[in-house]
# Entry
Amino acid sequence: MDTPNKPDRPLFVAGLTVLVLVLVAVAVIVFRPEPTVFDPSTPEGVVQTYVRAVLDKDDEAAMALLADETECEPIRFGRSGDDSIRVTLGKVEIDGDRATVDVRITTSGGGSPFDRWEYSETDSFTLTRQGGEWLIKTLPWRFVICEKGI
Amino acid sequence: MAIFGLLINLLILAALIGGGIALAKRGQNKDAGAGSIRRLVVYAFAYGLLVVAAVGVARLIGFLIPVEEVARNDSSEVARALAFTIVGGPGFYVLWRYLSKRLEDPAEQQSVGWGIFVLASTTTFLIGGLTGLATGIGWLIRVESPRPAELALGIVWMGIWWWTWRLATGKYRPKVLAEGSIIVGSGIGLVTTAVAAGVTINALLSEAYDALFSASVGSMTSDAFARALVWTILGSLIWWWHWWQHGLTTGDSVAKSAYTLILGVLGGSVAALGATAGGLFLTLQWFLGDPGGTALTHFGELPGVLSTVGIGWLVWAYHRSVVAAGGPDAFDTPTGTAYRYLLSGLGLVAAATGVGIVVNAILSTTVTIAGRDSSIDTLLGGITALIVGLPVWWKTWTPIQAAAAANPERLRHAARRIYLTVLAGVGGLVAVISLIVLTFELFQAALDGDSASVVIDRIRGPVGWIVATAVVAGYHISVWRRDRAGLPEEEESVELRQIILVTGEGAPLAELRAATHAVVTVWPRADETQGSGDAGEMLAALAEVSAERVLLISDRDGVKAIPLKH
# Structure
């Protein structure tokens, strides 16, 4: 840029870095593997199935995974409409017939790239084994779908 | 409005106190300091009395405007208005008679207190009058509930504003903050007009959007439209009067450049580019991303985006033309140079944000067990920021570098040094904060025994910022290095420290010392030869040599200078 004969190397390197980053990002997002599907007989598998059912608004499938046998009225508490939500798996601890599955819940939203917001929280599901199956006993408020499930 | 007014008064009070302290600290001339403090106190008093009287009179007139009412019990309000008027009005009148006599003296017109008084008064009454008039007119055209008090306030305060405007530009015109009232008024007019025009157009476009797609169940936009239209008309009148009639023709000043660059160029471009990014993001998200809801709700923000882009761009383009009006070399003046660096910085910040978001998006594709995935939206956000920021940066940075290459003296410009220093400061700050957050998250993850995917999710934000800062810093460190290498060499000058003068009697020692600031040592001759006693001749001889020590011999033939080694 200084003179036509002398290319501006640092500028070239910076530009190339940005370009590579963008291409890597596009490639990773387009070609990424499907999220791991955990075995539904494990505690993390139960949590995954439950969260997906809640996000798909399949309340029946979700409630089948709750430990509380009593019937409960579905409620719509805390379900955000347009916000994006992502759940990342943390620690899984199994202690006999009880299990704890930690999750990191990230919600994000906003219009333009300069006013996007993101909020993350760490929370956990506790499960109990009943008749050989893991069922959810307590859960993060965001995924509560019925009154007895709280 | 009440809080707004209180804030302004507090600011003015703070300015008066700060000015007083600054003057008191000047120390050198204690009498002037004490006199200035006396003036500040008197003018602060005058300002207070004027505002009190103005509030009282406006309220009283407000009570006289007939309104349909069921019942009324406002004796305390009337009492307060009477008290304000009766104490404030005569009080200010007496004080003003004293002040206007003193103001015949040019020294008084040069005082800081007078300058602050005039600027504070024009600003206060302009803002109050504008707010009152806009609300009062809203009532008259039936888009506001009855507001007689505001209408009276608007009319009375606009009248007082006119009087203070005459003070600001008439024969008592202050010498301190001389153009302040014009520039501040221009700013108030510009911001009011731009915001109100944006709201007006937004209301119109929203109405059209709803009509086209029958999106609305019920709407109230016509009132909002009328209200915003009133503000737009009043704001543009204020802007036309202050800027078009007066501001354009005043000479260049720091205040005028600050108005043009910060309000006009930066304000306009931030609005235009920010809204452009918002619109682009909405579109990309709809076609490539993960939009929530229907097209109707997704693009519901489009009228707002379009009106902001339009107004922002108009404001930006107009003030760019103000900067460019200085002729073909306009962008080489301090204001023009600052214009380029300002926009270059804006584009760079937007592009760097984009880089950070893109890195964040790459990392956010880590193990997610469930969720409406947002990593594609994050990536689109980053790409949008790059698309908007990079061209702005490129279009302004390339001419800057080309101009600097053509004339290396430009590398010394204050604007360039400030630009690189501010970039280094902001970059350093972002890097340090990101590193602290990163370290915190890593330690917390280690102490909690988090899984790898949670760790990555925790750190992707700060890592993105650190990468963005590194890319920007990498390039600008090289710019800074080449600047230092490319700077034209300063002429190496050897300072003359000592003169040994060999002469007879009558040497012009004092003149030599004064002209050279060197130590002059005289070695008197033992013979009878009388040297030339002419200082001009000696200085001419000294100018021909360059050394720290010079032997100066003055004899019949003239003056001879011999440079000596250390």
In short: Chain B touches chain A through 63 residues (CB under 8 Å). Confidence is low (pLDDT under 50) at residues 27-31 of chain B. The longest strand of chain B covers residues 549-555.
